[in-house]
Amino acid sequence: MLPSRAVCSRCTSQLRTQASQPIAKLAFSSVANTTHNGRPGRPSKPSTQERRTTRHRDGKLRSKPAGPPPRSKSDVSAFDMFNQIVNANNTGWTGKTTAILPDDGLSGTKPMSEIDITFMLSTLVARKNEPVKQRLTTFEKSIFPHLRAYGTNLPVPISQLVKEFINGACKDEIQHGRAASCLELAQLAARLGLTSPQIPSIMALKICHIFATGKNSSSYRKFLAQNLLELWMHVSQMQRLPEQGQPLRLALPDQVEFRVALRSAQQSSDSANNDSKVTPEAFVSALFPQFEASRARELVDGLLATLCFVSDSRYVPEHAQRDFAPLLELASIFFNEFSQGAESMLRQFPHQGSHHAVPFPSEKSHELHSYITNQWPILVQLLSNENAAWRQGSAASDSKTSLSQMHKRLRKAYQERNKPGVQTIWAEFYQKQAGSAGLRSAIQARPELMDFFIFIACALRLDYEYKTAVEMMAKLHIPLTLKTYTSMMHGWRLCKDTRKIDALWNQLESANVRLDVPIWTERLAAYILKGKTGACVAALAQLQKQWNDAVQSNTIEESGAVQPSIEMVNACIKGILEIDPPAAKVLLSWAHNNGIKADISTHNIILRRAFAAGPDDVAWIMDMMEKNGVEPNQATFIILIEEMLALTSHDSPEAQVEAVNQVFADLARSNFALTSELYAKALHAVASLANASDAAVDAVLAHLQHQNVRVNPYMVTILIERSLQRAPRSFAPIEALLQRHGMADTSRGDQTLWERVIRAAALTGEPYVALARFDELAAAERPVTSLPCLNELLRALVAEGDRDNARRVVDSVLHNKMVAQAQRGSHEDMDDARFWKHHFWYIAKENNLLDETNMPGGLHKLIENY
């Protein structure tokens, strides 16, 4: 765990102020005093009328009042109502909950102590004669609800028992099971923080072993094939932040990224380049880049067995093979372009070591090896066949592809806040589903996509699109669920349309709709948006009272009572800290005394605010995290490094380096694991800060290298962007960066990196260096498509007076656009009118670089307006 004093001495001197009462201490003091008996509360600092100054991330000094903002009279009356609800029995509030705990028969609702959880787990672990499925059901219903409050930061005794339970269940499933619980075991292990890919790998081996040795009905073979697919979907989403909470899918890299990763592994070898140097481990690392190489190695056996069984139409028929197409596509690249490396997968099977807590039995491995050896030629043939059925697609898969493409395009348009783009995508999609029964069926099978669109329509105030989406759901007999209503409220909250939130809420209440935690969380956040702090905490207290009453009368199901959660508190606390810090103290104290434990998100919200107040606030938060057993997460790390560097942005480089080293040293003493993704975020945070020194950036890189974390293309891109911010601009430092980090040619690094390199060369007066990279990427079938990059290249060539090469660039861009449009269909680019409106085409038109006889329609319509 982090030490309580996570601020270096230089940062402390920056933070030291005369704040009247630290915010973090204000928020957590009563919680601490009730949690740690005998620990005196820290004395408040004396008030002062002086104004204090703080440094912000832009490097500017701003004045702030010394004390918290005055509390409004309306909030005082609201808090009176809040206290009246809490003290429903007209008794003095002692700061302790008056809730009556549910009886033992209500499994999953009674707060349980650590000792009780440990006892229940020990009992469950000892019940080895029960079927695995029954043990998992017992765990899910009776134990897991009590572990949710801990997240993945389980107390040591509980953590050890959880590992013992999972490992025992895995061993029993492997030895005696029929693979019915393999997927459930792998997913449960990940939810409990056991993120090793070894568990899903051996579960895949178990499913394949049942395929090979069991007599299975056609329906059970279909069940096993689906479980095998979903197991690899789960693996592809593990340890990937954007995939958390998303539906299962094969979240794999695209072909360009995959090829670049394989070539990087090939060229990193000291010996001569040949495909035998691309090992099976490198193949799996390129396939699942979120895992470190040593962890990815554990997936080799399970992946090889899976590929062999997917290639066997007796077990996985052709129509089911199409569902594995993204995985098979990347595997075919490895098998066809690096055949010797692929063959070593077969020679080295099994890769599993005996050191694993759950090894796959050797006798079962031998049985699988025999099957895999016989199936290998068929697998190689399947992957090399350009006309294989799995490459062709089907009506159902085409509909799924259309939905996933729409989802991707909508997400991109929303991230760019591109309202016309969203409108065009929706109009196209609405028209397409009207003429496709298959697409309508696919929409009915994925109603969450409609919820997502409704959220976007509400967030961007697209009333017509919102109305037609709701009407389409009615025509397709897709019911409006609580998730749909929650999506509406979330969208309206983001665009600050509280009137519609109130109207919908009133309708839901008048219709007696049973509400849940997510929609209540949105409602409470809307109260804070409107500045109604008192109404928010009063609503929370009312919820708690209804829950207590329902527990007491044993009518939870009938009453539809909702138990307040830390997610609800977190939705309120950030806004309350801005509006009325004393109210945050009341709310957190109330939550604590009602058994609602502050989680890492709560601490992070207050930690960010604490940096503006003083070193005691920051130290107090870190101390609370340590004493409550709350481990830091990625957000904690980013907050620490951003805020501490911001405080030292005007100090000497040595002070900035000390701040960076302090954060890394503190995290090294915790159980927090730093991944390459986090190092990249840290590098971005430091490199983008105003006045951040080179020494601070080098300090991050030094820590990265000390941990043997490889500098990836994204990190190099960050460093290139930083170099471009300097005056005078020069390409020499950028070229040195590429050489230093082993990315001297276009076979290394990803597309984004090289498009940034081309742009940087053009901006620094090296148009022919940029043009050479442009041609290299085109020769490697990785044409440049980024118009901002191409815009700078074209400007540079025009400035040089090189019309021939400028015209060649324009013609190449047009050709690549037309090829892409022909491959994907014209509908793919209907929302890309912005592509033709880009300044690139204006430069081409002004310099007579366009051949108007061969001009695409989209450009022809717009060119006359230039």
TrEMBL record:
- Top-rank taxon of the source lineage equals Eukaryota
Instruction: Identify one Gene Ontology CC term for this UniProt entry.
Output: mitochondrion
Checking InterPro entries in the record gives: PPR_rpt, TPR-like_helical_dom_sf
Pfam families from the entry?
PPR_3 (PF13812)
Q: Where is the composition biased (Basic residues)?
A: 53-63
Q: Which GO terms describe its biological process?
A: mitochondrial RNA processing; RNA splicing
Which controlled-vocabulary keywords does the entry list? Repeat
Provide the residue span(s) of the region labelled Disordered. 27-76
GO MF entry, a single one: mRNA binding
Q: What is this protein called?
A: Uncharacterized protein
